[in-house]
Each structure stands twice: as structure tokens, then as C-alpha cells.
Amino acid sequence: MRNAIVVVDDDPIIRMDIREMLEEGGYLVAGEAKNGEEAIELIARVKPDLAIMDIKMPVMNGIKASHIIRKLQQDTSVLLLTAYSQKELVKDAREAGVAAFLVKPVSEEDLLPAVEIALSQKEKMDSLKQDIKLLKQSIEERKSIEKAKGLVMQKHALSEEKAYAKMREVSMATRIPLAKLAADILRDGAEVLAGAGGRTHD
């Protein structure tokens, strides 16, 4: 699946040149915009992987638009284009959450590697977000299992070890994941074990 990119610049000639370079490089250009406001609307609609955006534009400049885009559409990376290489711009771009920036005029030799770097950073961030999400889910499931185990211990006068063994036994017999079984116990009570085919014993 090709990465989707939007191109934002108030100069239609520059937009056309960048589009051609990207398409020749095998990328999908999902849309174009001529100022920051149009860029925000376009990105909210097409949800591209990357926005290549000029800094100096009418209505809303690229840095202000980048701030808003990063808040509204966390999955879209931003590569800024500028006619200047001032340190202040680099600082502003970094604070706006920009993945990379290029100094105009843009050549294919500069553009495609910068796009690859920006997309690579996006992939790393996506992977990190997924890892964090799975970790949070695992922690929540662990908490749920611990709480359910406590209910089983209390209801059936079992030791911690035996309560956990009973939950695992029922989970395996019914093919219900342990986390799902724990959620059922917390919702409906420890009697769920008996209803699910588990016999409680000391």
C-alpha cells in the first residue's frame, strides 16, 4: 500500500513540481491545498501519512497550521518547506511537531530522502503508540484478573493459588480468554465459574 501525501503551497507551479517528483518516486498524492486553512480541512478529510507544506503562505502559515494539524490529526507527519534556513524557523518547526524540513528550491534528490525520513519517523511513532496501547491493555487485564481472583477467593474460600488455578481451568475448558472471564466475574459475580462449567472445590 502506497503512502498518501498531501502537498500544500500557495504557488501552483511548486505544487505541480512536487506532485510530479512524488508520483515518479511511487508515492500517492492524495490532494493539494494553497494555504494552512485549506491544509487543515484537507488533512482532516483524507488523513494522509504525510503533509508537505510551505511555511510562508497567505491566510495561515505552515507553522501555525502544523501546530493545529499535529493536535487534530496525530497520525499525519509534517515536512515543512522554507525559502530560509534561519535557526528560529527550525526551532518553531520543532515546537510545532514537524518531522523534517527542506530549504527551497526543492530537488528530487533532496525531497525523496526527506520524505522517507519523515515517513520512517511516523512508522516508529505508530509502532511506539501501538506498543503503549498493548502495554496499557495488558496492565488493565492484569488488574481485572487480580480483582476477579479476589472475588473467587472470597466467594469459594479458596487460597490465592487455587482461585487462580480454578479461573485458568474454567478459561481453558470454555475457551474463554482469562481476561474476558475475569470481566464476566467482575460483572456477574464469582458464580460465573459454576455457570461456565467449573466446579469449585478446596
TrEMBL record:
PROSITE patterns: ANTAR, RESPONSE_REGULATORY. Residues 4-119 form the Response regulatory domain. This is Response regulator. The keyword Phosphoprotein applies. Keywords: Phosphoprotein, Two-component regulatory system. SMART domains: ANTAR, REC. The keyword Phosphoprotein applies. It comes from Paenibacillus violae. The modification 4-aspartylphosphate is found at residue 54. Pfam families: ANTAR (PF03861), Response_reg (PF00072). Residues 125-186 form the ANTAR domain.
